[in-house]
Amino acid sequence: MLQKFGFSQYESKVYETLVTSEDAMDTTTLVKHSGVPKAKIYEVISRMIDKGLILDSISNKKKLYAAVPMQVVIDKLSHEFEQQIARLKQVGKQKSYANDQVWSLKTDSSIEAFCKHMIAEAKQSIILSMWSDEFAEVKPLLEQKAREGVRVEALVTGAPPIHADIAKLYTLIPTEEHMHLERFKLIVADSEQLLFAGMEDGSWKAMRTMAQPFVKFFVEYFYHDVALAKITDKYHADLMRDAEIKSILMQLRY
Fold it and tell me: Which DSSP state fits 61?
């Protein structure tokens, strides 16, 4: 009866004998009705007492044994099973180890889905840079994360400017003179992992990594772009009057 729950054959026989008896039994009676050898009975009883399935008492200097009620045993085994399941789930959870590998990702739909996944899973911070039409697709999710307390900073390229309820929103409206302005996506989540995607031969291709040198580099890359966007916007007229500076700015990818 109890063998399916990890008990031995002798343990199962002793419990079944006691639980179906109206009276408590001594060891002699238990050996007779359970079929457990006399040489093993004390060892088996001791284990069952330790496991909480048998009660013991002394009456007229004779030791007697009785089974813990069946429903109590069922509740006990159920609770222990649930605890084992909970521990198994904890063991089964993926642990975050240092990962220096750089993974490549292709196809527009996969990259878009992964971007949304990274945003949804972020717990502390999100840094994001992309064009305005793509930003509009993730804007509701970003605002939701901001309401949850996640710090969100975004640089949006393209017109028209977009409003969003996030911590910091920067915009860059490119001019026709920009020579190397390309579409790209950058997401850094919790300062732990990043995804950078760009266009190649008309298709999106992306890299994803948790390698900290890359993460730190692209965070600096983001703030570099923000600084250039702010400086260019504030001092646009003066900068455009300087031919050398204008030539350099128009070749930047930001």
Answer: T
